[in-house]
Write a structure and sequence with these properties.
By secondary structure, this protein is α/β, with parallel strands linked by helices. The protein folds into 3 domains: 169 residues, Rossmann fold (3-Layer(aba) Sandwich), CATH 3.40.50.970; 161 residues, TPP-binding domain (Rossmann fold); 168 residues, Thiamin diphosphate (ThDP)-binding fold, Pyr/PP domains (Rossmann fold). Helix content is 36%, strand content 17%. The protein is built from 23 helices and 20 strands. The strands form 4 sheets. The chain has a 6-stranded parallel sheet, sandwiched between helices. It has a 6-stranded parallel sheet with strand order 11-10-9-12-13-14, sandwiched between helices. The N and C termini lie far apart (69 Å).
Amino acid sequence: MNLSGAKALMKSLECEHVDTIFGIPGGVVIPIYDELFNQEAITHYLVRHEQAAAHAADGYARATGKVGVCMATSGPGATNLVTGIATAYMDSVPLVALTGQVTTDLIGNDAFQEANITGITLPITKHSYLVHEASEIPQTIKEAFHIASTGRPGPVLVDIPKDVQTMSARFEYPKKVHLPGYQPTYEGHPGQIKRAAKAITEAHRPVIYVGGGAKISGASEEVRALAETIVAPVTMTLMGMGTLPAEHPLSLGMLGMHGTKYANYAVTESDLIIAIGARFDDRVTGKIASFAPNAKIIHIDIDPAEIGKNVRVDIPIVGDVKRVLQKLIPLLKDTHTKEWMEKVQTWKREYPLEFGETGLKPQYVVREISRLCPDAVVCTEVGQHQMWAAQYFSHRHPRNFISSGGLGTMGYGFPASIGAKIGRPDETVFDLAGDGSFTMNCQELATAVAYDVQVKVAIFNNGYLGMVRQWQELFYDRRYSQTKLSEINFVKLADAFGAHGIRVDSPSEVAPAIEEALAVPKPVIIDFRIEPEECVFPMVPAGAALNEIIDAKNGG
């Protein structure tokens, strides 16, 4: 049958089982939106800024494991997606971004609202397409979803000129994808797996270091089995939080710049690092030359480009981490970790995460949210509150902590929480936000209210761009250059959008406010007026070794 390009796009998305799109219409995507008007299988959510469309699709993807889809018009609509696309790329999130483009005869002429979006996004997508004919749409969409969701996931952009949307062509959706230049490796090399098993068996001080790749692969059970089989401590990156439940006795929480002291000490003194779906980024390693100086390194990752990129690797294994661990665990024999685990447990007792008791402490707020909503999906913005959320929320489930890691995108958490709640409507979704980050996309309160997306927002309001202020305090003699924020009445802001607002000034009000938020059938903002100059500790200064740690006692 013959279909217009716009109809072919809708039919192709149906074939990929897409049921949710986040976007904003504009001139060159009117034919697509006209087809959406009569769509029953796909629900479109009209956001208030294209960046929020990308973040919402990202949050939807992380919460569900499906491919997130966002859509924007040409020019500024498309370029407004860029930050969201880059965020998804850095954190390996499966995303398909659909953009409109000026008609094919105008491309390259600086036409009204023209931007070379495929060129702009080239470094931050797995692949990008400029569609020239309506007949190309089914094959392009099939390939886009395949590339986005396989191997190391990531965003794919499809740019569709307006005349391609209206021209007619025969529609036939392909059953398979054949891309000779794109063949991800899923099975680890058997010889390398045997070498890894031998190294693990011989180790006396092993540490399992888990990144977001384990979560993406669905390898939580395998990580747990590995840890329990060899009786080794497990530390996680920000992206890996929840892969092993926080309360598990082998869990050391997060490592790195704001990781636990005991995780960083364990890594520094280990004789074997088993890296699973992690990329050894600078926030984790600190000073590269001092990272795990006495350890052999086993690195398991589906992306061969990550292995050896930042640190030397003794035993590389390219493959899907779940499949690799399933082959590795049966090969493991008795280990020699009794003394090592006693030392690690001593560190855990001696260096617990702790905070003061004066005033309204953000750490206390996070612990209360964790206590009252233990199974909530937690999204965060970026800054101090993000680190407190990683440190003090008891993360129990692998897809329940959603945060911008690699790019560190302020304004991410609230639209991502909307996408997460739409993807998992029956679960409590909390956005833990800073007053600076939240105001970057607070217009999405209109989206949440319009579609009755009952997300709950906890704003850690200290009146500052908190993380920058902390660095200015510690390293720039408290010269708070442009980090003090003007006062915002978030209760009135919530009311203006039709949401519910609560203000909290003291510790005794924290639990009642959370309980009220959970009971109110609306989007809710809780404005927690926390201590203005509270710092995130422990902290490894940039460029320092992991065991060169400052805390409130020696640095604040």
